[in-house]
Structures are given as structure tokens and as C-alpha cells.
Please model this.
Amino acid sequence: DQLFRYEVPVCPGISGAPKGTEHTLLRLIRENAAASKIRLDPPGCKPNALALFVTTPDALVVGLKKKAPGYFGLIAQPDFKRLSTGGAPIRSWHVVETAGRDGQMLDGFGGIGGELGASDAKVVKNAAATRVYENTRQEILLGFAVIDSNATVGKTVQQLADIISLHLFLDLGQ
Model:
């Protein structure tokens, strides 16, 4: 399996962080990204890696899927159930797009008898017959980390920044 990766600069964003920690958390997450050689957008950019602190993470995830189902892409129902009812203190997922090996966006195959949507089948126009590399890559468009605010009590800002960084920058399947 391929690892998902950001091909565009990352812009972390935070909402609902414990009082007085938002700026420090953002700075530490940016430092973690820089130390990991992840390209960053300058401060003030439009976030594409979001950490959301809430007291009811299950409700947020379910509500977000109702309002913006595209944020959950092709997440299978069992995986969505785990995200929305798992009880974990942090849940994360990524919105991913399949691109050609050189980064070109793939054209939709179009419907076959109206059964496939444009996002269901993609065409790789310059495929190579090789086992050395893949003909496609998985690019992260958006990353989400939903943190249960109740689980942050007793955690340091550094601990929060580190676990958020892991969830936003890696596909942990959580």
C-alpha cells in the first residue's frame, strides 16, 4: 500500500483549543512539520490540516458527514463507524485524491450505464509496465484531527502538539 502524502504546502489550523494554548499549539505543530521536512505555507494561509477540539467528537463527525460528505471520500462504513462512535480521544482522517505518478490529476472515466460517477473511476493515461514504481500516488488534500477536549486535561501543550502532528501528517487510520 502507498502512503498518503501532502504534495502542496501544509497549512495547520486549530479551532476550540484549550484557553490560551492556540498560538503555542500552532507554533509547535509548525515546528514539528518543519523538523519533518514537510513544506509549510506561511502563517495566515488557508488551513488544509485542521485540529478541532470539541466536547462531543462523535456528534461533530456525524454532523460533518451530513453537511460535507466529500470530506469522508471513500471511507468504508466500518471505518466511519469507528470514527464516529469509537470513543477514542482523537480521531483523524484525510481527504485524498489519486494523481498520476508525476502529479497530474486523473480524468474521470465517466459513467458506464449511469452506474459510475466521475470520482469512482480514474484513467491513467501514461501508465508504465513496471514494478519499480506505482503509476499513481495518493495526495492528501485535507487532514482532520478531532480531539475530545475532555481528554486533554493534564496533558502539556507539547504533548498535544506532538499527537496532533502525528495525526495530521500521517495516515494513522484512526
